[in-house]
Amino acid sequence: MRGAALIAAGVLLTAGCSEVEAPPVDPTALADAVQLDAVMTHLTELERIAGENDGNRSLGTPGYDASVDYVAGALRDAGFDVQTPEFDTTLFAVENEQLTVDGEPMGVSALGMSPSTGPEGLTARVVRIAPDDTPGCEATDYDGIDATGAVVIVDRGVCTFAVKEQVAAERGAAALLVANNEDGPLTAAGLGAESTPRIPVGGVAGADAERLFAATTVTVTLQTRTEDRKSRNVIAQTRTGSTDDVVVVGAHLDSVPEGPGINDNGTGVAAVLETALQLGSEPGVTNAVRFAFWGAEEVGLVGSTRYVESLSDEERLDIALYLNFDMLGSPNAGYLVFDGDDSDAVGEGPGPEGSAGIERTFAQFFDERGIEVGGTDFDGRSDYGPFVAFGIPAGGVFTGADDVKTPEQAGLWGGTADQPFDPNYHTPEDTLAGIDRDAFAAAAAAVAYGTAVYANSIDGPDGVPAGDQRAEVRAEFTE
């Protein structure tokens, strides 16, 4: 379906040729126009869709198809040229998860795309990889350790689960268990849809790690299966504005199978959709705005990855920047913006050139409303990932997922310290009842503000590289 995505992109890239007649868009006015009642109406509709479709809106389900129809229909009614390009993906399902440690059961969750142990499971000795600066991320972490045929246990963190699996498999491990480095079990994690794992991989709670380390043998059963599926993105672009400097604004549309996905990511969908409706299909903007609602994010950012990869080099260079909005109404909310300049010195380093300016734009928006923001890392867990991979500057707003709110953050923003930002993350309880409406209202307004700022101009101290600079600076970032 690569061709379908490319054709859809080509249609949209030719759409911004009409003469601009509408008055210029004021960022503050657009932010004020995105009202809480309107975005809550969209959320209510998404919850209704989930309720009528087995409680979710996940990949390959009628609930997801109905979500596509709702978003695409609203955009078409507003005059947008809407495309729903189809792409291939893989559905992952778990049939059985069991872990026995010295005859006693322990909780375990199969990581997405994990190979199956088969129904009989496997029994093997336990090997621990020390929790150093690169826990299970490098071959040297296994120096002096015979992992052949063993169940290897590593700590979460530093590198992706896929890298940990690859290293363990290369050292001959029979299976891999990843111990959470935060409170609670390691659930709803995955190896990525594009990964090719060779051994079963499960996640366990960090509190259980010591018991595992002391065990002689364990029996692990991760019975999984995969199915080829098709899914769709929703893409809509303004009919005005330069198509040489497109501002892409995105949110993932799918939920996990476990729940309706109202915070994750109905909130992002509702805010981006309402921003599009208030902006209109023919606004007075300098740069075209492309609104994107991604499919199959929850199984490895598949929809956004397929889309970005389907574009030619020239079409990617026509994208000035990408704004991502995922989880905007967390019950124990924080006010986080993506750390474009790595000023927090945490995790993956700075984003592509221009990302620092995007961070400042959103920080300024919140500062003017008396809200101090924190940084959040480009850790690859949402749809900015494939854009950043091609050196496209990115940014956005986030109110937190399964990370734990620190006492300092609770002092800054309120809420409960030492509890997750979203205790309902990837559960059936991710419903309207859990939405922090104050945080959601502020974040939704920020979506509109940031969109308007860059639709008007990509220049200035908070701008992004111009078209004639992009190829060089993006090549430097991706080297």
From TrEMBL:
GO biological process: proteolysis
Superkingdom of origin: Bacteria
Keywords on record: Hydrolase
InterPro entries, sorted: M28_fam (IPR045175), PA_dom_sf (IPR046450), PA_domain (IPR003137), Peptidase_M28 (IPR007484)
Domain Peptidase M28 residues, every copy: 233-449
Record bears the keyword NADP: no
Domain PA: 123-212
Pfam family, one: PA
Region (Disordered): 459-479
Protein name stated in the entry: M20/M25/M40 family metallo-hydrolase
